[in-house]
Amino acid sequence: MDRRPARLKTTSPLRRPGWAGRFGAPPSFFAGLAMGAAVLLGGAAAAAPILPAVALETPATGSFHLDARTVIAAPAADASALATAGYLAELLARTRGLKLKVVEGAPATSVPAIVLKRGAPAGEAYGLDVRPDGLTIESSGDAGLFYGAVSAWQLATPAPGHGAIDIAATHIEDAPRFGWRGLMLDSARNFQSPAFVEAFIDRMARAKLNVLQWHLTDDQGWRLEIRKYPRLTEVGAWRVPAGPAAAADLDRKTGRPRRIGGFYTQDQVRQIVAYAAARHVTIVPEIEMPGHAQAAIAAYPQLGAAAAPPDAPSSDWGVHPHLYNVDEKTFGFLEDVLTEVMALFPGRYIHIGGDEAVKGEWKADPAVQARMRDLYIGDEDALQGWFVARIGHFLALHGRRLIGWDEILQGGVAPGATVMSWRGLDGAIVAAKLGHDAVVAAQPTYYFDNRQAADPDEPPGRGRLVTLKDVYDFEPVPAILSAAERTHVLGVQAQLWSEHIRTEDRVSRMAFPRALALAETGWSPQPRKDWRDFTARLDADLGRERALGEAFGTVPAETPVGPQPALRTRASQEMRLCSERVALNLEDDAPVDGPRARFLVDIMNPCWIWPAADLSGVGEIEAAVGQLPFNFQIGDDIRKIVLRPPATEPGELEVRRDWCGGPVIAMLPLAPATRSQAVTRLKAPLAPTPGVHDLCMSFTRRTVDPIWVIDRVTLAPDAREARHGR
Amino acid sequence: MDRRPARLKTTSPLRRPGWAGRFGAPPSFFAGLAMGAAVLLGGAAAAAPILPAVALETPATGSFHLDARTVIAAPAADASALATAGYLAELLARTRGLKLKVVEGAPATSVPAIVLKRGAPAGEAYGLDVRPDGLTIESSGDAGLFYGAVSAWQLATPAPGHGAIDIAATHIEDAPRFGWRGLMLDSARNFQSPAFVEAFIDRMARAKLNVLQWHLTDDQGWRLEIRKYPRLTEVGAWRVPAGPAAAADLDRKTGRPRRIGGFYTQDQVRQIVAYAAARHVTIVPEIEMPGHAQAAIAAYPQLGAAAAPPDAPSSDWGVHPHLYNVDEKTFGFLEDVLTEVMALFPGRYIHIGGDEAVKGEWKADPAVQARMRDLYIGDEDALQGWFVARIGHFLALHGRRLIGWDEILQGGVAPGATVMSWRGLDGAIVAAKLGHDAVVAAQPTYYFDNRQAADPDEPPGRGRLVTLKDVYDFEPVPAILSAAERTHVLGVQAQLWSEHIRTEDRVSRMAFPRALALAETGWSPQPRKDWRDFTARLDADLGRERALGEAFGTVPAETPVGPQPALRTRASQEMRLCSERVALNLEDDAPVDGPRARFLVDIMNPCWIWPAADLSGVGEIEAAVGQLPFNFQIGDDIRKIVLRPPATEPGELEVRRDWCGGPVIAMLPLAPATRSQAVTRLKAPLAPTPGVHDLCMSFTRRTVDPIWVIDRVTLAPDAREARHGR
Question: Please, are residues A427 and B435 in contact by the beta-carbon 8 Å criterion?
């Protein structure tokens, strides 16, 4: 350790949960690190195959020969270091086929060894030295030692392959840019198994991500066992999906439509929390209030503020009207719930949602209005401010901190609250300028339910294209903030909202590889980031993940390749939407089992454009169309959906020439499609239209529900011309 | 009116008080105007002598001969137009010596006339046409007609002079960029007479400024008669100034120290409000809460939260500890006061201060803490949020809107509150991003108690130099705001805090000419602004103001000229401060009557540097020193003042060579100065120090009070050398 050219100052420990900025490492530590690395790395050699990129590396001469004789040594009686040694051994065994022995205490000098040492870098920071005689990882922090081990594993697996490997000598000093490097998993809209959640956490840990925000409650489901309120999961954890297919899918036992869902028992949660802690991931549970509460209110209607409370969790998406009321009994309920939540989750932060609470029910409820008068609160927004501040105070009395979506800034931000900035960077800017901490969770870039490619096979999700490079290039710290204000930006987090991510496999594919780009933004000093270098290291990383059996989305090309102009068939994803008001890549609701079609559609205006279609010789158009339930709660916006009256009762697919106000050149009646819940192929002649034209395709209809959608469209030659042997 | 090349869209009236952005002219109106003018004005001829610059002018051929035969015609039975005609006639009489007749209805066609017409431009917008046969002003808005008349007056007075004048034909279309163009007058720290306030309003109106924020209450004084609470002015309007000079200035009648102060009776206020309304200036009264309340609490101690309430208004400056308590009776008092305030001031906005409320008293008061528990409010910042929101709700119930300093954003901004952004632009950024309106009142640029020049004769004030050009160049709309967010920026306002502005004459000199730069930022389209052009028009404007007998500060040179290096005497203002922690240009507290010395001093570190003084041949140093009462409430910061122990009991002025840690080359004992309340000249030999050196001068002392200050320093030749005839 003597040859190091410079030493990072890592004397301030990043205590867990001390990664909370002001109470952990002084934020200037990160700032200083980023500056230092920028200077020290100038002209460095090719980066080590570590992802996220390390802060500082200094190549040396020679190499270390790692083979099956190597042992992994951890200090005697150091349980955390020994666990990390075991974790490293397991990773090497699974990916490199090297089964290394873990030894406690100093190894024999004759034996080549990976040595875990306790030493100067603290918290999440670590030093790593590769010399011909061994590999040493040093940190006084448990997390630092763990991250050093992950880096060592990555050094040993630069490419797929098994058996011994030479690791080039190097000296690494590494520490994260941000203390909060998170993913949010929405287990409320669609449920994932405990085993999946654990595998997901494991994967995060390998990318040095350290916070899992766990979205456990919402209108569509309550996923956490609360001992005092069993109906939360008895009632709140189950629902019948929207649409006729699900309604027709009867449960043999009950004779009623089959319900989907599930919840986590407290035993399961304790196990998952321990699993995460062993991997230095903190779980931040999210219990939504005062809105996004339909599942809870369905379970205990006395909690609600509606004249007619809901009797089941919702199977719709969007913003629902139901809020908790403000009775003292309701606060008693919330405090009881949070008390059980705090007992399960030892981390400092508790997320209370706070987003998208429309105030209609509060305005209409005499009891809420009376309470407002008692409290001298003149306005429902201020009431929400009071509500959130009160919960924040309750959490603070128990040594926890409240975090919420950036709406908590409105109507009065709770003292000491941390803000999760989802509406771009605005929340972070406002929070920091008001002296509050913030985490950047900005949509659209950090909303990983957005599509990452325009491929028709891309998993369902929101329609916006957010590529790997978009995520990589996004700088989360707003340039307008002063140096002091920047210290309030705790870090970054990407969201996996699961309305349209129905399966665990799809969670994996939507999360990765984009989470690796996020991880590098969250960990590596900003000047260290380099897209080309990242993609090279990404290759190595995806190789490792493949070896571990993990799924990930197709790594999209840097510049998306559009469909070939000559193609005669286009999927909805290969066409342009006429508008992108609420563009979604939706999955069909049928069949209940087996693969379903996916449609890219603007639910506010289902209309597609095939640009520059060569119609010469085309005489027929074939369209595969589907229908989707309109299960979107969009409030008054529903009146903004324009319905064009149909010629026949079930409606038609109209094809117009050149633009959406152009002449109709084909008309495909929907009658044959009304009988099927899945995709139906329709066919119609196309008026002879030689030359290249844009085609605009949309539906006539009388109702918003169902949403008629195009699956794919084929332009076929004129049957007569074909017959004539053209 | 037919030859106009383009017409400004002025169909949206700027109703008073409809200048409130969202409820008056749509802000896009201003935006569109700015853009349009930028295009249309490209390549226009020299600007008309109107200040602020008009939005759009199109020179035409010929000119209008204005002489004593000209009449001013206003529509029959149009009281507002007739009043404006009279106002114009008076201005022309006073500045040009032309006594024009005002006629009601259309003038005889043979008589040359200035015609006020009702027509298309609405609100504050107007059209103005100069043709050989007459001058026409057109607006459907009373304010627009008034501003057109002011512009006509300025066209007629391009330079000092009397009698007839030819006005070049032109077509003008004009409308303001912002609806809020304000000055804040602090009548609490030092009182101004009603006559002065009216003259000040008149002057604002001539610059098309339209809002006077009137700071009527503070720790040092309560200036507004409240019928229900007479002690507010009996007790709260009077104080003994700080320092021994004032303490020794006994009132013959009472035998006690003479008190200064005053207040406005409700009759006087009604007259001032009417005077302002006739000039289209809205007065926004400011009643400070929950802090800056010592004068009120001294009058009614039951309003306070202190164990030992104050018994008189403060004669200190700074941030005082006293807050209103949160008893229902106190809210009753505040609502009573605001009810009388609303009866006096008909404008939409009521300013409630909200700034600089330190929470120590609330934290210590059991009654406040009990109330917090009752209200489920866990934190004193949140309590202030609730306090302000409650007052905001009360005002809203009476059709008014709350405005407050940007601290109201903390602890929960009241719904619908408008934010006065004083700490730079941050308040405006945060407010706009949260959907609140904001007025940009940014320090230091818009704090006109800052010095405008480094001249020793400059009136007392804060020490920061804010030149006319600094004000002119300041762009108030934060670049980071989106187009939609920008609509929340209602306008601009400059502040005349009066701690150090003791006299009315000084208010005038500190306000003007800088208020004219502010006026142009507030009125003229942004692309229309041009510093050179402004200074040319400013000359004309100052000429008019001189003719009206108004005072204004010396127009500072664009690049301040420093003192001549060869000068052997320097005033404090001609030296450099060693630090600028709290730099002030302070007036001596003595003599009570007659001129007093002024000292530029950092009260946290009274220390001056004479840079590059040529000490060759200097053998003696003479310093005129004064002492000021330390009447600054700076809380714990007082511990940050470093006191260097003196050699003699009263202390010394130390002169050090090269830097403030350099060798002492002269030492001037303060003993002779302790006997005088004004300035004392001290003399001491200076160690022979040939060459050019920085001199660092500071005081040794045992206490922060008094503050010893340098008035001026003279370097004298060595007396012996002089004797030897050198």
Answer: no
Q: In A160-315, where does DSSP find H-type helix? A: 194-206, 231-234, 244-247, 266-278, 294-299
Q: What does the DSSP 8-state code read for residue B76?
A: T
DSSP string of A389-404? HHHHHHHHHTT-EEEE
Q: Measure the CA–CA gap between A57 and A533, rounded to whole angstroms.
A: 14
| Cis status, amide bond into A513, omega within 30 of 0 | yes
B332-364 core/surface letters (b: 16 or more CB in 10 A; e: else): ebbeebbebbbebbebbbbbbbbbebbbebbee
Using CA atoms, how far apart are residues B542 and B555, in angstroms rounded to an integer? Answer: 10
DSSP-assigned letter for residue B636: G
State which amino acid sits at residue B71: V
Q: A224-244: per-residue pLDDT in tens?
A: 999 999 999 999 999 999 999
Do residues B389 and B412 make contact, with C-beta atoms less than 8 angstroms apart? yes
Active site residue A356: yes
Q: Closest by alpha carbon to A503, among A246, A188, A191?
A: A191
Helix and strand numbers, DSSP H then E, in chain A: 19, 34
Phi first, then psi: give them for residue A374, nearest 5 degrees. -60, -35
- Asked whether the beta carbons of B70 and B112 are under 8 A apart, the reply is yes
Question: Against a cut of 0.80, is the pTM above it?
Answer: yes
Cβ count near A373 (within 10 Å): 9
Q: Which residues of B touch A (CB under 8 A)?
A: 331, 375-379, 381-382, 385-386, 389-390, 392-394, 396-397, 409-416, 426, 429-430, 433-435, 480
Measured between alpha carbons, how far is B302 from B327 in angstroms, rounded to an integer?
9
**DSSP code, position A285:** E
Q: B224 - beta bridge partners?
A: B264
Distance CA B688, CA B694 (A): 14
Cα–chain-centroid distance for residue A56?
A: 29
**Chain centroid offset of residue A53 CA:** 22
pLDDT of residue B676: 87
* CA-based max dimension of chain B: 88
φ, ψ (nearest 5 deg) of residue A182: -125, 160
Q: Single out the catalytic residue among A249, A335, A356, A622.
A: A356
pLDDT of amino acid B638? 94
Burial class, B718, CB count within 10 angstroms (exposed 0-12 / middle 13-18 / buried 19+)? middle
Q: Average pLDDT of chain B?
A: 91
ipTM associated with this complex: 0.81
CA-closest candidate to residue A286, choices A350, A224, A345, A240: A350
- State the pLDDT confidence band at A109, using cuts at 50, 70 and 90: confident
Q: To the nearest whole percent, how much of chain B has pLDDT over 90? A: 85
Distance from CA of B436 to the nearest CA of A (A): 10
Say which residue the tokens 């000292």 belong to: B599
Please give the single-letter amino acid code of residue A558: E
Which of B412, B426, B435 is nearest residue A413 as measured by Cβ atoms? B412
Residues of A with Cβ-Cβ distance to B382 under 8 angstroms: 386, 389, 412, 414-415
At A134 the three-state DSSP class reads: strand
Mean pLDDT by 10 residues, chain B (726 residues): 36 29 34 36 64 97 96 97 98 97 91 95 97 97 98 96 96 98 98 98 98 98 98 98 94 94 98 98 98 98 95 97 98 98 98 96 97 94 93 96 93 84 95 96 97 91 95 97 96 98 96 97 96 94 94 71 76 95 95 92 97 93 96 94 93 96 95 92 93 96 95 86 48
Contact B609, B695 (CB under 8 A): yes
Phi and psi, residue B60, nearest 5°:
-125, -175
Q: What is the pLDDT of residues B460-472, one digit of tens each?
A: 999 999 999 999 9
Quote the pLDDT of residue B561: 63
Q: One-letter amino acid identity for B219?
A: D
Beta-strand pair B349-353/B401-405: parallel
